[in-house]
Amino acid sequence: MKTILYTLLAGFLLSCCACSKKSGDTPPVITIPDTCGNRFYYYWDQTIPLGTYSDTLTVGFRPGTTIAQISASLKKYPFVKGIDEKSLYGAPKFVFVAISGFSDCGMVQQMLLQLKSDSMITYANQLLYLRNVYTGSRDALGLTDEFVVGLKKPEDLPVLEEFAKTTNTRIREKSTSYYLLTVERRNSKDALEMANYFHESGLFYYAEPNFITKASPL
Length: 218
Description:
By secondary structure, this protein is α+β, with helices and mostly antiparallel strands. The chain has one domain. It contains 5 helices and 12 strands. The chain is globular, with a radius of gyration of 17 Å.
């Protein structure tokens, strides 16, 4: 699995569960996808099922957003119950956010809609998890706005560039072995759905979300 690894505050989820525009920007038209059903991603030719936490989100911010701005932005929302303080260190690109636990998927989706309408926020997604088949534990995965694509052969780059252009995604980084793509804010799909879409096209060697591995016990 191609992931970015961040070591975060141990026990954040448990502790939170225990707690009872840029000016001139045109607000984007955002449609929150229906992600209440079963979620999964492709790892090579395997379909990997994923679970969803209803009380924790991964929220990304525009480059250059300060810690003070992030804190002030999130405090505006009454459903935000806590922020993983350790993920605020340095120049944060994202934070883990605890919200009031809701079993109603529609309510969680409305929260995501509110967050994504904030001009400082680039994405907001529910925290996912992968069930560890050896230990039975839940390995938490933060869903960002990025996914990784491998080409079948170098000559397929124009195919990727055209596919990205027509799907409201953007090639962010190029390497000798893979390409990192970003889902544009105006896209109605998240990075998990877009990675699956690229994989199912059959045009590429692989396509996977660029998950954040939350390295703390749940």
